[in-house]
Write a structure and sequence with these properties.
- By secondary structure, the chain is mainly alpha-helical.
- It is about 75% helix and about 0% strand.
- It has 5 helices and no strands.
- Helix 2 runs antiparallel to helix 3 (about 105-130), helix 2 packs parallel to helix 4 (about 140-155) and helix 2 (about 70-100) packs antiparallel against helix 5.
- The protein starts with 10 loop residues before the first helix and ends in a 5-residue tail after the last helix.
Length: about 190
């Protein structure tokens, strides 16, 4: 009888493999969900602080540029930078949903590379808001960081979604980010 034992049901081995698979699935889900929540919380916290930082920066520029025509341009740049920063954060939040559903390892690795690029660009833009005497506002750096973050955000938005995320109306990832852009309330 020893010859045929390999094809018989052995509940203990199956149960152990099932437990390990479930643990891996839970760990994977937990990773992506935690990152999603992290960006959601940061988005909520930044909503008020972005507006406040923009007002403070604009006020600081007004005090320094009395009688200067550059103020209107800077005001516009700062508002656009706030909008870009907000959209980058909203996009990053939804990228974790995308990554969770992507089953193709190569596509997920490429996507996560793009995701990391967007995170770096968004962080660079955020740092430029932290104006101090040591690091004063620099219009050119702000514009470059803004264009970089938006370019990287657009690039990630062009990525084909994993099949579980495709629905009748197209790419819900892109639709969610477009809705976020429309509802950001930043002008």
């Amino acid at each position: 009888g020893g010859f045929y034992k390999c094809n018989r049901y052995q509940p203990k081995q199956v149960e152990e493999r099932t437990k390990e698979n479930l643990k891996q699935s839970l760990d994977r889900y937990s990773h992506y969900y935690t990152r999603y929540l992290s960006h959601l919380q940061a988005e909520r916290l930044e909503a008020a602080s972005n507006a406040e930082k923009a007002r403070a920066l604009i006020e600081s520029l007004r005090q320094k540029a009395i009688g200067s025509d550059a103020l209107a341009t800077d005001d516009e740049i700062v508002r656009e930078a706030v909008r870009t920063r907000t959209l980058a954060r909203k996009t990053l939040k939804w990228t974790y949903v995308y990554s969770y559903y992507e089953q193709d390892d190569a596509k997920r690795e490429l996507f996560e590379f793009l995701q990391e690029d967007l995170e770096r660009a968004a962080e660079k833009l955020a740092q430029l808001f932290e104006q101090t005497d040591k690091h004063p506002y620099n219009r050119e750096q702000m514009q470059i960081a803004m264009r970089d973050a938006e370019r990287r955000r657009q690039h990630i938005m062009e990525t084909e979604p994993p099949s579980p995320l495709i629905n009748i109306s197209g790419n819900p990832f892109a639709a969610a980010a477009a809705a976020a852009a429309a509802g950001s309330g930043i002008r």
